[in-house]
Structure formats: C-alpha cells, structure tokens
Amino acid sequence: RHSIDCDFERTGEIDVATEPYQARELRDRYEEIRSKGLADGVEYLDAEAVRDQVNSPTFEAGLYDRRGVAMLHPAKLAWGLKRACVDLGVRVYEHTPALGLKPYGAGMAVHTPYGAIRARTVALGTNIFPSLVRRVRAYTVPVYDYALMTEPLTPGQLASIGWKNRQGLGDSANRFHYFRLSADNRVLWGGYDAVYPYGGRVRAEYDDRPETYAKLAGHFFGCFPQLEGVRFTHAWGGAIDTCTRFSAFFGTAHAGKVAYAAGYTGLGVGATRFGAEVMLDLLAGERTERTELEMVRRKPLPFPPEPFAWTGIALTKWSLARADAQGGQRNLWLRTMDKLGLGFDS
After folding, report:
1. For the structural domain made of 93-140+245-297, what CATH number should be given?
2. Mean pLDDT throughout 169-173?
3. C-alpha dihedral over 278, 279, 284, 289, to 10 degrees?
4. How many CA atoms lie within 13 A of 70 on its CB side?
C-alpha cells in the first residue's frame, strides 16, 4: 500500500537440526502440526533433503515452512514506515527522551526535556528502555545479541552451499544461530551468545564484543567449511528486551488510557504489528479475538532483584548449554522452569 522498499521476499524458513535428538524433536513437532491440521506448506526434511536445500555437513534434518515466513531488511522497513507516517501527517519527534507520564484532563501528557506532548491515549513500545509505567519495569531485562555479515558471495561460493531458495534458517539448539542471505548475497550470521549485563544496564560499549564475534566466526566456518576464507565485513550487537516467558506481554495503565507491549525477546520484527494491534484494541476498550488470547490476558513472572536476577539468568544459560551438550537432556532447573511456564517452552 505504501510502496515500502524493504527487500521483502516470501522465502519461507527452515528450522534445522544439527544433532540426532534435534532431528527427532523436529519430527515430533511436524507430527503434532499435522495432527492439528496445520501442516499445509510445512514439510519435514531428512538429512539428504535438507542438505539439498542448503548444503551444510552439520545439518541432520529440517522443518521447512514454505509460506509462513518472509525475509526483509528491518532498517529499510522502519525507514519506510516512518516515511509513510510522515506522508500521512504523523509528527515524529526523534532524539526526544520520554521522561514521564501524567494524566492531563481527559488524556495523558508525555513529558520530555523540551516540554510535554499531550494525547487522548498513549501506546508504549519502549523495548529495552525502562517503561514509563514503573510497575512494568520488573518484567523485562536487556540481553545483548550479536551478528556478523560476510562480504557478498561469488556465484561459485553460493553454488557450493546451495541455498538457491534463500530461506531464513535457524538451528534447533538451545543456544542457537540464525542466518539468512541479504539482497546482495551476503550471509548474516548471528545468535548463540546472549549476554546479560549485571544490573540490566544498557550501555553503548556493550554493542561490540570481539570475543563473541570470534566465536561466531568459528561456528560459521564449522557450518559452511566450503566458505573458508570468506571475509566478514560487518559486526555489530545490541540489546533486546526479554521477559521470563520469552514472548511479548501486554497491559494497560492510567484507567485504560495507556497501553504497552514489551518482552519480545528478539521476535519483534515479525510480531510488533500484532503487538500494535493488541494495544489499539486495549486502548479502544474492545474485546477482540486478540485480547482474549491467554498470552494477552496473562503476564509472565517478573524478574527478581539483583543479585538473584543475574544468578538465575547465569544458571539458566549454563543449564541450556549443558542440555545442548548432553543430547537435549534438561536438568532439574530447566524442568522446573518448564513447569512454571518460563522460557521458550512456556
């Protein structure tokens, strides 16, 4: 509708297994999808079939969602959305910190260093930054994620790994990698390390982490030994907001005049439009199919104060790494989290 050029490609996605136990889990997930009548466009791939799509010696199996996932350039999408908003008359205040919320007549005032912006209703999408609704702050912490980008692959290099259908890829380990091709055939390779700074501090110096870049580079060449010698031209990191159930949560404040969505845990590119629609429903006071969902009606457990938050997160990361090394066997800590509805298995 708005002609946003964001390299949109409906390529689909493959969840890949790199261990036999992960292959079994993908097969079980596929059978569950089939039993619920949701398998249209979804295909289970054995080792030969998945390597025919993308050739890595580490791939044991795959679950291919052919139609349910698209790839795009997130920054180009954001820039295009901004342009569309400005063209429609929306006023955008960049580099303007929102410092507080207060009722103002029948609406709300958002206070900034330069004055206040007044509105009937407010939707908060504050991601990693402290929510203007103070009681929400305990529900999220920042976790730093890092990525590498290769130089553009030559036709010969691209042919050596296949990937002719340009799907998005992610492996099935607890500490997983995500990877994709850019419009100019660079490989974006990220994930694995998830770094929580003690106290939940957000600082620019955390955006670069050479030890993680080196680790990611080693993993990349383990996945694609055919590309040995390819250079990485870009490396970066940044914080994502996570909550204890690893997916977004929602709510209202100030007698329904303020709505919020937070805790996306890196899933926001695909899910923020849904989150925005939830907030609009909540601000309108409407009961809809979205607002009746359990994930909208219920919140995750909040994080405890320090040092308990750091200790719990460190123990969880250690347990997840141990499970990856022991055929997926989850220890008592992870099994307890599962029962409490915490983490990705919530």
Report:
1. 3.50.50.60
2. 95
3. 10
4. 12
* pLDDT mean over 55-77: 96
CB atoms under 10 Å from CB of 18, counted, come to 20
CA gap 249, 346 in Å, rounded: 13
Supply 69's token pair. 């996932």
Q: Which CATH class is domain 13-73+141-242?
A: alpha beta
Tell me how far CA of residue 262 lies from CA of 15, 67, 123, 240, in angstroms.
25, 27, 11, 10
Q: Considering the entire predicted model, what is its pTM?
A: 0.91
Per-residue tokens: 47: 């080792």
- Give the separation between CA 14 and CA 65, rounded to whole angstroms: 6
User: What is the rounded (10 degree) CA torsion for 18, 22, 28, 29?
Assistant: -70
State residue 346's pLDDT score: 60
Spatial contact of 204 and 142, defined as CB atoms under 8 Å apart: no
